Amino acid sequence: MPMAKNHRSERPSAFAASRPDPGTILDRLAPGPSRASRITHTEHLPPRAGRHAVWPDRIRAEVVAAVQAAGIEHPWAHQALAAEHALDGDNVIVATGTASGKSLAYLVPVLSCLLDGSEAPNGRGATALYLAPTKALAADQRRSVKELSQPLGNAVRPAVYDGDTPFEEREWVRQYANYVLTNPDMLHRGILPSHPRWASFLKSLKYVVIDECHTYRGVFGSHVAQVLRRLRRLCARYGASPVFLLASATAAEPAVAAGRLTGLRVVEIADDASPRGELVFALWEPPLTELHGEKGAPVRRTAIAETADLLTDLTLQGVRSVAFVRSRRGAELISVIAQERLSEVDRSLARRVAAYRGGYLPEERRALEQALHSGELLGLAATTALELGIDVSGLDAVVIAGYPGTRASLWQQAGRAGRAGQGALAILVARDDPLDTFLVHHPEALFDQPVESTVLDPDNPYVLAPHLCAAAAESPLVEEDLALFGPETAALLPQLEAAKLLRRRTSAWHWTRRERAADLADIRGGGGNPVQIVEEGTGRLLGTVDAGASHTAVHEGAVHLHQGRTYLVRSLDLTDSVALVEEANPPYSTVARDTTSISVLETDTEIPWGDGRLCYGSVEVTNQVVSFLRRRVITGEVLGETKLDLPPRTLRTRAVWWTVTEDQLDAARINPEILGGALHAAEHASIGMLPLFATCDRWDIGGVSVPLHPDTLLPTVFVYDGHPGGAGFAERAFHTARSWLTATRQAIASCECDAGCPSCIQSPKCGNGNEPLHKRGAVRLLTVLLQGAPEEKVPDEKG
């Protein structure tokens, strides 16, 4: 039953006890010296006993009885404390570990409130709204709520309201459901613009639950923060002031992040009182191959191939496992490789492994979720859609193909295993990447450091402006609203008037256009309509890809994977947002190449670093995808390059940059012949290491290095946010620059290669084919730069 995530007892079940312990599973995965040498570190996290409490006496007895009927006799201490605060009307965030029962912490007070409301004379009674970052999580939570509240009869009426909800059901949800489960996208585009039809629901709204709130970071998190402010404004119009209940994986300063997200004061509950089984966490580095990559660099076996082998071996052991991978393509590849290898042993075993990722059609997602719940599937290769998607009880092992970008996400993924109370195995398989290589050889950076702060910036004008328009369309903006939307609002309103998006009449600003104002804000940051992927011969819709990723993912000649099948993109129509594909079986994957230039628009802050300068401000980036490489699937060997003719894209964003002087170059023994390579190598490595200091990954950020930049008139390295207006990552880099660049220098210097490789200075997304690069020059350059670095002080602001 899905509510198993709340740990029914402190003892593992008999079923769990019969399973092999995680150490034994790991030993079977690494039986000989070849495999064992790939394990660079093993961390043993001991089991932890739980601490019980009692539910507050204000919780309805029927709700307590329903929870006990589900097998949960007593709450953990943090669950009871969260319920107490919720009943007191405090906004609260529960930031405890995976499988610590966060769902029950907010469900119990919510269900008790709905039960009270069911006795109200107006018939509708109290209502509650649940927000999840994914459709799958909302659907899974509905199952949990329905099962838990079954003894309560019709008093609790949960319903999912998202893009997959049939139109004939939507009216029933609006009129009768009192626990509506949705996502920020539907709240933004569907519920808030149609608020008169939701008037009775909003008028009675008592609680807003925001699940997995640590995922609301960067530009997406900034958009969600403004969506929540619009929700609060409309609730106030209808006379409601709901309490916000947030659930998060363990995070740094969770109350600060929750306050930034909601705009409210939030009480923090972070003392995890739940029990935990033993976790064995192995760091795994794939071996070097006999192949050589760009500039003759040694090439490691790919994390994809290594993870596929591990998933195969785990399936053969009968170990229920999930392999997490960052990309949709990676999930499909791991699934295909594992299925092929399992077929060689037993054809029936291939059906026990599948892929799960975003972009699937709704019916495909539901079928996979059901197969995983039933145990029909033994192994799953999944993107982060499953990290948050559904409650998977009974998993024994998790394999993580490449560092997922943040320690919070790493622990979230590792916590998918062992949720029934048994011991669990987690394996982080390193990519051939500076950060991954650094981490598997510096385990203290993972196991001895707190998780990151959540970075978001609701005041980003590119985020705020479209939400002011959407708010004005929902109800004209008045002076009293300005404080709600933040300090940048007053300055933006005249600009929106000048653009003829808003018009001021007497004391209010009105939306002036016929089109929907909500369509101005793309809260997922996709930058336009999704590109539809259509099979050329049949017209069948296979899925979609974000507009922002279309130039690199579905350009003409790209290899596209879907449901274990391989397709070649025959054409990309940017006007109609359609990519036509046909099924094929090429022996390669494709990687896009691009060129980038950058100009400084405004320098907000600059500080001296010896003779050099560290700066932060606004920049304009021009990027163009110009070609793509064909790489052999297993080895990564480059087979060829093909030119592309795609239009350039311009991005105004925020960046951190540093300059060095002639004297510093002399001190570093950097002559003009190696200057470009030293700067380029330092840029690549610093981009690779930034995720250790900000909640981003290298695909959220970009960089440019120039031996003589026209705006600074000095050798300069830029690292910028890959989103309009910025996402807070470059600002975080500016404030942690000394630690960030120190780790960057260490990562380059400690790498065993001679002249640079993917583990230190080569980048998988370099538009110049990793030319030029100079490893030793980068180390000397960073050494001299850091000699002038001041002590850093990270302010408590915007993340």
Automatic annotation (TrEMBL):
**Pfam assignment, any one:** Helicase_C
- Which residues belong to any copy of the Helicase ATP-binding domain? 83-269
**Superkingdom per UniProt:** Bacteria
* GO biological process, alphabetically ordered: interstrand cross-link repair; nucleotide-excision repair
Keywords assigned: ATP-binding, Helicase, Hydrolase, Nucleotide-binding
Question: A single Gene Ontology molecular function, please?
Answer: 3'-5' DNA helicase activity
Q: Which residues form the Helicase C-terminal domain?
A: 306-462
Give the start-end ranges of region Disordered: 1-25
According to UniProt, the name of this protein is Helicase
